[in-house]
Amino acid sequence: MTITAPDIAQRRELKTPIPGPRSQALAERRSSVVAAGVSSTMPVYAARAAGGIIEDVDGNTLIDLGSGIAVTTVGSSDPRVVANVQQQVAEITHTCFMISPYEGYVAVAEKLAELTPGDHAKKSALFNSGAEAVENAVKIARYATGRQAVVAVDHAYHGRTNLTMALTAKAMPYKKGFGPFASDVYRVPTSYPFRDPEGMTGEEAAQRAITLAEKAVGADQIAAFIMEPIQGEGGFIVPAPGFLAAIAKWCTDNGIVFIADEVQSGFARTGEWFAVDHEGVVPDLVTTAKGIAGGLPLSAVTGRAELMDSVHPGGLGGTYGGNPVACAAALGAIETMEADGLLDRAKHIEELATGALRDIQAKTPAIGEIRGRGGMLAVEIVKPGTKEPDAALTAAVAKRCHEQGVVILTCGTFGNVIRLLPPLVISDELLLEGLGVLADAFAAELA
Ligand SMILES: Cc1ncc(COP(=O)(O)O)c(C=O)c1O
């Protein structure tokens, strides 16, 4: 059998207004059968995708600056992912690793042990979604320490299940009306250099968080401190240098499990395998998902062998966790990251995109800050001359980009951040064209 990924010309072309007639017809069908609580950023229905392009059902080709929220790091339908999945799906679709185990699960765990930070002995457990990985990391930390409290930070996003809603900071749309939430979760301030007091160092911000955790909970009651090393939904917030290391050290000194939630920032996205690698920080547990498997649902908790092994047999798992097809996809995606140099590619994207964003900023006083690492970049939008968030301008700029065929996402506690998460295989030309559309959108809104 010849196995091919879709061959889609890597160029933006709009054949109809956005959304086109077929997308509109699908929206109509959807409105009677899909729950309103599940929303979509763009009213455009995808037909195929590859590289940096999503082709819609009307034949429009859109520049993808979102990667399905940081998932298709290797591009949609990466040839190695396609080949591995097609072969695997024809051999075994499912046996359940808890019933009849198979090699792919073991091979993914070996890769996770190799690639995650630290040279200590590591073990993994595989799941389906990021939220499920976070839930399980907390379960493991609680079991291993015999403690219950969990500390999370401001602007955190960890998922939509009950415990992860409790860990997530923002009420709308993630939490409002969905309580009661899991108990024994405490929140402390993070390091948010753009909004912290001028000149606050990472160490000072860490001390602010630690003091609050010690006073509000008590270090000896805390099972885990969980945070995203670069915050995703909360606004692509990069903590000041030294913050992560100071928190990790305090955790180690106090027998607290430091969980790095790398669901969005992990797997080559930031130009290193994991965002903590930029700071040389070694977490006790790492949660991964999204980019790990090129678009198939797979997630993992990886960590110190003694923590992972503390849980009794049967205490971790789930019917589909580490499904063979998802594992085959992960092995293909990781091979592409390694063979095609995607860490370096992410660094190149950072350089190229940051340059283009700085040119936009020079003409756009509403851009308060450009930040991020690798292919995880953002601009925070404010009322000029202030730090007052401008969510309306952010939404209007994003909408203009969508109308021009550029898939761009927003985020942030205040809804005022435009984030860029292109597939790392996007061409320079497409990336710059997408950012050109962003520049035009700002210019048109501010004219
Ligand atoms: C940092 C982080 N953790 C957890 C999650 C939840 O992942 P999932 O949507 O796969 O449950 C996300 C999703 O955006 C995330 O960004």
Profile the largest sheet. Answer: 7 strands, mixed
What is the terminal separation in angstroms?
55 Å
What is the CATH top level name of the largest domain? Answer: Alpha Beta
Query: Please, how many helices?
Result: 13
- Helix-strand makeup class: alpha/beta
For the secondary structure, the number of strands is 15
Percent of sequence in beta strands: 15-25%
CATH 4th-level superfamily of the largest domain: Type I PLP-dependent aspartate aminotransferase-like (Major domain)
| Count of discrete domains | 2
Gyration radius (Cα, Å) is 21 Å
Q: Unreliable segments (pLDDT under 50, ≥5 consecutive)? A: none
Q: Helix share of residues? A: 25-40%
Structure description:
- This protein has 447 residues and is of the alpha/beta class.
- The protein has two domains: 21-64 and 341-446, Aspartate Aminotransferase, domain 1 (Alpha-Beta Complex), CATH 3.90.1150; 81-339, Aspartate Aminotransferase, domain 2.
- 37% of the residues lie in helices and 16% in strands.
- The chain has 13 helices and 15 strands.
- Strands 4-10-9-8-7-5-6 form a seven-stranded mixed beta sheet, with helices on both faces. The chain has a four-stranded mixed beta sheet with strand order 1-2-3-13.
- Helix 4 packs parallel to helix 10.
- The mean pLDDT is 97.
- Pyridoxal-5'-phosphate binds next to helix 5.
